[in-house]
Amino acid sequence: MIRALGSKIDLSQPDTEYNQMVCDLISHEVVCQMKNYIQHGRTTTFQHCVNVSYYNYLICKLLSLDARAAARGGLLHDLFLYDWHTRVTPVGEHNHAIAHAGTALANAKMYFALDEKETDIIKKHMFPVNPALPKYSETVVITIVDKVCGVMEVLDYRRWEIKALARHFRYIRYVKGIERAAVRAVEE
Ligand SMILES: [Fe+2]
Ligand SMILES: [Fe+2]
Fold first, then answer.
1. Is the separation of the CB atoms in 98 and 124 below 8 Å?
2. Is the pTM of the predicted complex or chain greater than 0.70?
3. How far does residue 130's CA lie from ligand 1's centre (Å)?
């Protein structure tokens, strides 16, 4: 099952329009390699790309833009295959925030045929960190969706941490209750 954060729709089902637009990408070995790396919080780069791709698709469809390019470009926009948290930037290379859009584009071009709009979406999704101006409305959409998804993923992680903490305290209370009951039983 593949779901975007906050959605209940199974995007792996071939009867969804979204799946029909990205089916050759979403199951591709190289795209699936993104499952091995964390992007934000506990969200993998693959899941992040699904989130961005799906909401890109929905918004562009709503705005009568090119929803197909939005979905495909979104799914490939972070196709760099390393953990950016631990990677040491090679001497003479820009840092990850600036360089990864170019890396993702080079990787995407190596495995897939991209049209001009998909290329622009991947190459400029980091605007304004990368100052090159988006050429298409679909690129403007991803510059916003990418950032909103990043925030949603971090908040989701915080919520998960709070729940884990609450579970931990419930467990401590439970153990202390058992200890008190055991002490009472010995005293009686
Ligand atoms: Fe990115
Ligand atoms: Fe991203």
1. no
2. yes
3. 10
